[in-house]
Design a protein that fits this description.
Number of strands: 24
Number of helices: 14
Largest sheet: 6 strands, antiparallel
Strand order of the largest sheet: 1-2-3-4-6-5
Shape: elongated
Oligomer: single chain
């Protein structure tokens, strides 16, 4: 949300009354963010955008008051982090640029009972992974405080024009004071010291946002190299270890190398391959690492290198090594900063591996839930479109087309309530039971009757088991929404039997599912079933079936609600018989082209991507 310039005098903060009275604002802005770990990064981006806009409007200096902007982003980040971590609620943020050039920010949460912790207090806990605490706010702000209200509290801070003054004693300057001297970056207005005093915190915060969004461990490693070289080191290397490597003690995996001078990478890579780290235990480091002087040319004869174990959840994931030429040792400020970064790298690698494992399991599970191939029915052209919304996870939609014996062919298109593993469990029950019942000779309605009872019995057993476990654990009754979920299934199921003189007799039933449509060669469209109750809802429900004749050239279209309920604003694709009209426009097309056309019309109905799984099956009598 961009800041909104204003010429009127107002001190309105997030709440009804100001948390911190200030001068009339030149410009102000506000937004509301979800109470998630993404909120600090979003808040920084909003404030950065506000300062850019203010500079363009001439409300700040031509450089956008760089020091004040840096201070503002650091303070906003810490206040929002504090609110997210300690309150865990939605946060409302308001910021304003005052007429005298000062900057004020207020962060309001909805949990007044959880007071913020100031690490400068004697009994304050160790600094957490997620931020540097209110000590930073106290250092950079002219004034700051907490205002309590009914139902919430507001942390506010006011930064003086131009930003906070540099301390006379350089000792308190955070982390990157030495690091920037080792690896100078392009000069910025106000000199390096501005960046040194605040850059470490912004560096870690931005690095966390960047790494947290990656789901590939190799990309995490590549980003780590780019973050470290040349800002903190002349070169760095990352060894990633898989579970087998750690378990068998076979050393590290392949090494990835970065160097400030690209011409040195290949030779350095060869040298580091011969000298992989041999860590002992799970201590994160830093530990000394042998200097690969011969691989760095004449200017790299001497230097120092440190190794950091990448550990997440108590498990070693790899090793990070940094090196700097011409040093006897890295300053403590640098080693501490890299250790902080290393923890974030390890968490990102761990998350990427967990995602990869889940994606692999989901892909294997999905392959097991769907038929390996759609059966070919003599005298019938068939076409299928199947698109799960989540490409890496189990879909709630499923389909099947299989021979049932005695010249009969059966088909099913279903949609399970919910997604993911719970949906996979229901599909894992339903599809094989449909096949078994069909091959045992049960009629269409009988298959639905027995499948309905199966789902109800299974849900009852799951509820009984959960209740027994809860009683054994000494717990009370389930809170609303916490108990075992009912296993509802919408299903269109049918059976095809060929006529001797051509065409097919189709017996089918729809249980809470979009009704199938029949298209004649002349373009007439009609429904082929009547609506009935979802499976897994009503005990002892009795289902019925209908019979339709599919003459040569007739096409039967079966879809899931990802087709009929595709939205564009307030409209759905099937409003005013939209699916029937779309099918009528397919007259004269074969099964494959009908499926393709319906799919294209559904996708083109709205600009955004579908928000549900999509499946459609076309059966056309030859």
């Amino acid at each position: 949300m961009a800041a909104i310039p204003t010429q009127r005098a107002t001190d309105a903060p997030v709440g009804d009354t100001p948390a911190h009275p200030g001068a009339s604002p030149l410009a102000e802005g506000r937004t509301t963010l979800a109470g998630s770990l993404a909120a600090p990064g979003s808040a920084r981006a909003l404030v950065r955008g506000a300062f850019t806009e203010w500079a363009a409007l001439g409300l700040t200096g031509p450089d956008g008051d760089t020091r004040l902007a840096d201070d503002a982003m650091a303070v906003v980040s810490e206040l929002v982090t504090n609110a997210v971590v300690h309150a865990g609620t939605e946060v409302e943020i308001a910021w304003r640029l005052e007429a005298n050039g000062a900057f004020t920010v207020e962060v309001h949460d909805h949990h007044p009972a959880r007071a913020p912790r100031d690490p400068s207090e004697p009994d304050a806990p160790e600094m957490p992974e997620h931020g540097r605490g209110l000590r930073l706010v106290a250092t950079l702000a002219e004034t700051w405080g907490v205002t309590y209200r009914s139902g919430g509290k507001t942390l506010w801070a006011r930064l003086p024009p131009g930003g906070a003054e540099e301390p006379e004693d350089p000792a308190p300057v955070p982390a990157l004071h030495a690091a920037e001297a080792l690896a100078p970056q392009p000069q910025r207005p106000g000199g390096d010291r501005d960046w040194l005093g605040r850059g470490a915190l912004s560096f870690l915060a931005e690095a966390s946002d960047l790494l947290a969004g990656q789901l590939d461990e190799n990309l995490v490693a590549a980003l780590t190299g780019q973050l470290l070289v040349p800002r903190l080191a002349d070169w760095c290397a990352v060894w990633l270890e898989d579970e087998a490597t750690v378990r068998t003690g076979c050393g590290s995996g392949p090494v990835r190398v970065w160097h400030a001078h690209e011409s040195r990478i290949e030779e350095l890579h060869r040298a580091l391959e011969k000298e992989p780290p041999r860590p002992d235990g799970v201590r994160s480091g830093p530990e000394p690492y042998p200097w690969p002087g011969g691989a760095l040319g004449p200017e790299g004869t001497h230097g120092t290198a440190l190794a950091y174990r990448l550990i997440a959840g108590g498990r070693p994931l790899g090793t990070l090594v940094i090196g700097r030429c011409g040093l006897l040792r890295f300053p403590d400020e640098v080693t501490g900063l890299v250790e902080d970064l290393g923890r974030r790298v390890a968490l990102a690698i761990g998350a990427a591996r967990q995602y990869a494992r889940q994606a692999t399991i989901s892909a294997v599970l999905q392959r097991g839930l769907l038929p390996g191939a759609v059966a070919e029915i003599p005298g019938v052209r068939s076409a299928l479109v199947y698109e799960p919304r989540d490409k890496g996870g189990p879909s709630g939609d499923f389909y099947d087309l299989f021979p049932a014996g005695d010249g009969r062919w059966c088909f099913a298109v279903g949609d399970v309530q919910g997604k993911g593993p719970e949906a996979a469990v229901v599909i894992g029950l339903a599809r094989p039971w449909i096949r078994l019942l069909a091959r045992e000779g049960y009629p269409v309605a009988g298959v639905l009757d027995r499948l309905n009872q199966l789902l109800l019995d299974d849900a009852t057993e799951a509820a009984d088991a959960a209740a027994r476990a809860l009683v054994a654990a000494g717990g009370g009754p389930f809170a609303p929404g916490e108990g075992p979920q009912s296993r509802f299934l919408s299903l269109l199921y049918g059976e095809l039997t060929p006529h001797a003189d051509g065409g097919f007799r189709c017996v089918l039933a729809s249980a809470g599912h979009p009704l199938p449509l029949v298209l004649s060669p002349g373009g007439r469209v009609r429904s082929a079933a009547r609506p009935q109750t979802l499976l897994g809802v009503v005990e002892d429900e009795t289902y019925t079936s209908e019979a339709v004749e599919l003459r040569p050239g007739d096409s039967l279209l079966c879809v899931t609600d990802g087709v009929t309920e595709r939205r564009s604003g307030t409209r759905q694709f099937d409003d005013e018989d939209g699916l029937a009209h779309a099918l009528a426009s397919c007259a004269g097309l074969d099964a494959g082209r009908i499926a393709e056309r319906i799919h294209d019309l559904v996708l083109g109905f709205a600009d955004d991507l579908p928000d549900d799984d999509l499946a459609l099956l076309v059966l056309q009598a030859e």
